[in-house]
Amino acid sequence: MGDLFSNLGLGFSVALSLQNIVAAFIGCLVGTLIGVLPGVGPIATIAMLLPITFSLDPTGALIMLAGIYYGAQYGGSTTAILVNIPGEATSVVTALDGHQMARQGRAGIALGVAAIGSFFAGTVATIVIAALGKPLTGLALLFGPTEYFSLMVMGLVFAVVLARGSILKAIAMILVGVLLSTVGLDLETGEERMTFGLPFLSDGIDFAVLAMGIFGIAEIMRNLDHTEHRDVVRQSIGRLLPNKEDFKESYMPAIRGTLIGAILGILPGNGAVLGPFASYTLEKKLAKDPRRFGRGAIEGVAGPESANNAGAQTSFIPLLTLGIPPNAVMALMVGAMTIHGIIPGPQVMTRNPDLFWGMIASMWIGNLMLLVINLPLVGVWVRLLKVPYRLLFPAILLFCCIGIYSINSLPTDVVFIALFGFVGYMLIKFGFEPAPMLLGFVLGKLMEENLRRALILSRGSLETFIERPVSAGLLAVAAILLIIALLPSIRKGRDEVFTE
Amino acid sequence: MSTPHESPGAASRRGPVRAPQSLAGGLFLLFLALLALWLTRDLDQGTLGSMGPAMLPRWLAFGVGLSGLALIVLAFVKDGEPLERWTLRGPFFIIWAILAFAFTIRPDTWTIGPVGPISLPGLGLMFAGPLAVIIGGFATPEARFRDLVIVALSLTPFCMVLFGDSALLNLPIPMFPQALAGFFPAGFTQNSVLRTIAVVMAVAALLIFLTTRGRRDAAIDAADHGGRI
Predict the structure, then answer these.
(1) Confidence tier at A414 by pLDDT (50, 70, 90)
(2) Which of A38, A58, A115, B200 could form a disulfide with A340 if both were Cys (CB 3.0 to 4.6 A apart)?
(3) What local confidence, expressed as pLDDT, does residue B100 receive?
(4) Do A456 and B28 touch (CB under 8 A)?
(5) Which chain A residues in 150-189 lie under 8 Å from chain B, judged by CB atoms?
(6) Position B226 in a domain
């Protein structure tokens, strides 16, 4: 316990330096600014804003990126409440009751409860990360390539189970993602694989380029297909601070949401996505009068928003301790860390304690800042939401181009966001969800590396994956999950959770 | 096998294809799988004990192909979604906008398939930015040229200063054609040239905004309504 506090103390001493406070502040502010824009989720936001962190030292850069991430999440919920356009999967749930509250003239309270719930969740999640960081890092050191491979398989199975729509399509997307990750030089033999003989593909497809294409450009193309009817609330926002009664109704949902979100967020394979849905379903089950849900129930905002934020934060755990990014946002973090010369994994904590604990402490500071800077700025965000999309998307397009160009100074990267954007657009039109593909891509390289090493160690015997107990356990969990998800009764329930 | 229907709705339900979206998706996956198999045809697969470069891609391609086949079969067996409405206008202009940016941002030689090498002058962000904004802006049928010009001329200088100015992010993005620097007095540094250009562009945007203000119709400007909610 004493260890925990001394570590957090170190973290705060790093995070509270002037430069890092400014970095966190700018990150939160810019992240919210872009996150508020409809159709720009955290992934595209981070990919777009990656260059603004280049001039900082690694700690400052990661603090700013984390700020952008929370900011974008936060901005997404603001849009969900005020406009009924969920910026991304996790704010779908917030839009249900949040927007109804806004229509009843209680937008301010919905925003306030979302902010306070998020802050509470962020505080708890910070402590969870700090407490679990050390033991999990120890665990990671026991993992060999066999275990790593099985863990990643489990993560991908999670992603399949959690994806919306057809399971077959989700599996296909994961496979395509892993397949894309094998483009480029083979690490061991140095032979070119599937590069079409193009020199810039020999290093493989850049993750930021793929993410920007699929989540930035494809999203613009898709939004253009839908004639815009943006339903910005006309009512007054009202007071922002919840009164005693609002507070009484929302504090238990916030606590439950935080717990659910924090636990699900730790799971590899983007468990954080499930948090808000699970929390919403739970609150509806527990409520005395479930009919209020969908008509502006405050619990339907407090619970999911807390779950969302807790999960967003605890999803840092697999990255910081095991070096495995559990979702696309964390994969971008890997990219950012590598740019700054840090290889994510268990060694970060021992080799760069300043960075590790500084980042954790800055998460809490970032959440506090979001609470303080966002509520008074609601008017600005509302104004931003009124800019018509026909003027907004060219601006987003320009930021995407500049952002991706500045990472490697390669015009070919810019061309590739167009290509991936169009492919992503086609995938969306064919009913595929791009998120599992991105996760497959992210884990693909690591998986191949570990698979090869595991098989070299076992002299080519696949049995090694079931002979080693930890690996066998992880694979068993994966298999059980997949079977459960395929059972007809559960499948129906799963569809219900997502359509609600 | 029939080709995927472009027009969804009641008509497609009557044919043998019961889920056009699955069919199209399946064909797409099959195409990807075959492409991957073809690209890895010359590579060595190796053994499990020492895997060759082609082992994983090939297995994955089989997996993708099988999923594709399953989707195609399901499309004839199970009712499913029709294909969504496609518009080519959006992707067309967006792709050209991005290409315009890529081709003009820095001096470069491109070899595109049989065509090439083509030398491109490198106009810098001051031209690449407006090109991307204006071409991209036409992706929506609601596009208005005047508005796009104003957005382009105000956003570009903002980005130039933010990303290029040595006092701010100072990223190595080409900002203006080098030939342009010759027009400025000898004492001007790169940075002051950059700032001057940015100011000129921003002033131009403001002028266009002010001089053509009377001619817009009422629905254009959102900022007017922004204040109250």
Answers:
(1) very high
(2) A58
(3) 92
(4) no
(5) 168-169, 171-172, 175-176, 178-179, 182, 186, 188-189
(6) no
The domain of B22 spans 10-77
Return d(Cα B114, Cα B54) in angstroms, integer.
Answer: 28
Of B25, B63, B125, the CB nearest to A169: B25
| pLDDT for the residue A493 | 60
pLDDT over 80 (residue A464):
yes
What's the pLDDT score for residue A228?
59
Specify whether B143 is located in the same domain as B67.
Answer: no
Q: Model ipTM?
A: 0.83
Residue B222 domain flag: no
CB contact under 8 A, B36 and A194: yes
pLDDT confidence of residue A44 = 82
Residue B229, pLDDT score: 32
For residue A478, which of A281, A294, A267 has the smallest C-alpha distance? A267
Nearest-Cα residue of chain B relative to residue A412:
B102
Residues B107 and B203 in one domain: yes
Interface of A with B in 41-80 (CB under 8 A): 51-52, 54-55
* Nearest-neighbour CA in chain A from B213: distance (Å): 17
Residue A242 near residue A108 (C-beta atoms within 8 A): no
pLDDT band of residue A188 (cuts 50, 70, 90) is confident
- Please tell me which of the candidates A182, A194, A387 has its beta carbon nearest to residue B222: A387
| Residue A462 in contact with partner chain B when CB distance is under 8 A | yes
Q: In B, which residues are within 8 Å of A179 by CB distance?
A: 32, 36, 57, 60-61, 64
pLDDT in tens, A115-129: 888 889 988 998 888
DSSP H helices, A143-183, are 145-162, 167-181
Q: Check CB contact under 8 Å for B56 and A448.
A: yes
- CB-CB contact of A430 with B21 (8 Å): yes
The C-alpha atoms of residue B166 and residue B188 are separated, in whole angstroms, by 14
Residues of B in contact with A105 (CB under 8 A): none
Tell me the residue range of the domain where A160 lies: 2-499
Selecting from B29, B52, B83 the residue whose C-beta is nearest the C-beta of A429 gives B83
* pLDDT given for residue A444 in this prediction: 86
Query: From the list A172, A400, A430, which residue is nearest B21 (CB)?
Result: A430
Please give the tally of structural domains in chain A: 1
Contact (Cβ atoms closer than 8 angstroms) between residue B160 and residue B197 = yes
Low-confidence ranges of chain B (pLDDT < 70): 1-14, 112-116, 214-229
Do B120 and B204 belong to one domain? yes
Backbone angles phi, psi at B119, to 5 degrees: -90, 130
User: pLDDT tens-digit profile of A54-111?
Assistant: 778 888 888 888 888 888 888 888 888 888 776 666 777 888 888 888 888 888 888 8
| Number of domains forming the structure of chain B | 2
Closest CA to B56 of A153, A445, A199, A478: A445
Answer whether 0.95 is exceeded by the pTM: no
Q: Which residues of A touch B129 (CB under 8 A)?
A: 398, 402
Average pLDDT, chain A: 83
Asked if residue B224 belongs to a domain, the reply is no
- Kindly determine whether residue B102 and residue A412, on different chains, have CB atoms separated by under 8 Å: yes
pLDDT at position B10: 42
For A167, residues 6+ apart whose C-beta sits below 8 A from its C-beta are A160, A161, A485, A486, A491
| Inter-chain CB proximity B51 and A451 less than 8 Å | yes
For testing contact with chain B, the best of A179, A192, A491 (most B CBs within 10 A): A179
| Strand A184-185 versus strand A192-193 pairing type | antiparallel
Cβ atoms of A345 and A3 within 8 Å: the answer is no
Packing angle of the helix pair A274-286, A92-101 (nearest 10 deg): 50
Residues B104 and B199 in one domain: yes
